[in-house]
Amino acid sequence: MAGRQANGRSTIYQGNDGYWHGRVTVGIRPDGRPDRRHVMSRQKSVVADKVRDLEQGRTSGSLLRAGEKWTVEEWLTHWLEDITAPFVKVNTLAGYRVAVNHHLIPGLGRHKLTELRPEHLERLYQDIQLKMTKGGTLTKPATAHQVHRTVRTALNEAVRRGYLTKNPATLAKTPRIDEDEVEPYTVDEIQRLFRTATQTRNGARWAIALALGLRQGEALGLKWSDVDFKTHTLAIRRGRLRPQYEHGCGGRCDKKFAGHCPQRIATRPETDSTKSRAGRRYVGLPESLSDLLKEHRARQNEERLRAGSLWSEGD
To answer: pLDDT tens-digit profile of 244-277?
Structure first.
């Protein structure tokens, strides 16, 4: 038997069972005790190699943490609700939840996290494309790509925290997407759109979005405080979120969808700030657009006066 080594030092010794044993301290367990790994073999050289590998893994940080036996479902749920949810945008979180709860957990949830392979993911992506949508069509490859991006992000976090040594999603092949070529509007089509917008209630948002290249959510999220008629500029600060509701009737109405409930309750805010600093920007307003917005504000003020106490800013 070898003499006692100093705390934290690796040891190699032959036990009474005739085997050679090696013990290496590689870190701290979740309960605060030292994480001391054990290897054994009938040959001392084999144990020495294993001890050296553990020491190198300790130095490089490539060893799995001890005491955590995650399944894919457990890790994805923890990553989604405890790690990600408090720090991402509402729309981003909604996309993650669909990918995790509708695709990843049903398809891969029972696998052990450390035993997940690229082939498991590739098979899931193929299965997703064979599912029928509510509209009766096959699911598009873009959905599989969204699922892939989500699981890649979740497993990257597992690697950073020491629960995986490698991310299998970085090796998995994703389905091919045939990108449709964008066909810009013709001058005649643009002119017709502008003419129609001027004759439609709240049509100014279509003209503004088309002329300035705003996203739909950015155009719908605009407020009068974002418009500066003196400097002819428009501030893009937020985007309109897709509404989401829950029943406020306690399940007594006969409406299938919560959004149709007479007492519906909104479960997400109307708007959210832009996703990045680059999205927050100022754009110039041509004089024709400034005039269009002034006309729109005048019509809106007339509607407000007629509506009186029935008016709400969402109208």
So the answer is: 888 988 878 888 888 899 889 988 888 888 877 7
pTM of the model: 0.69
* Contact between 206 and 184 (Cβ < 8 Å): no
Q: DSSP states of 85-98 as a string?
A: GGGS-HHHHHHHHH
Tell me the CA distances in angstroms from 264 to 244, 252, 267, 315, one per residue in order: 10, 12, 9, 17
Q: CATH number of the domain at 191-237+274-315, please?
A: 1.10.443.10
Pinpoint the alpha helices (H) of the chain.
44-60, 72-78, 90-98, 105-108, 118-129, 141-160, 187-198, 204-212, 216-220, 287-307
Q: Which CATH number fits domain 72-170: 3.20.20.110, 1.10.620.20, 3.40.630.10, 1.10.150.130?
A: 1.10.150.130
Instruction: Give the tens place of pLDDT for each residue, 174-215.
Output: 998 877 788 888 989 988 988 888 888 888 989 999 899 899
